[in-house]
Amino acid sequence: MLDQYLIKNTTREQREKTVRDALGCGGGGCENCSACGVYGAGDPLDMYQPYIDGRQEIEDINREFKARYFR
Does the reported pTM lie above 0.85? Predict the structure, then answer.
């Protein structure tokens, strides 16, 4: 993980922007493919809310997601 994205190096606003930019949320990047629902993650912003709130690193969230849904 790049240090610039660690919770200790970012503000809540920066983390939310990082997630939105990466997912294309709100910028017309989402193609509404429903993949989030197919994999059971639901709304991707909900999935990454612990990172946005500063409770869990994004790398840990991604690792847990992969362990749950990909074998």
Answer: no
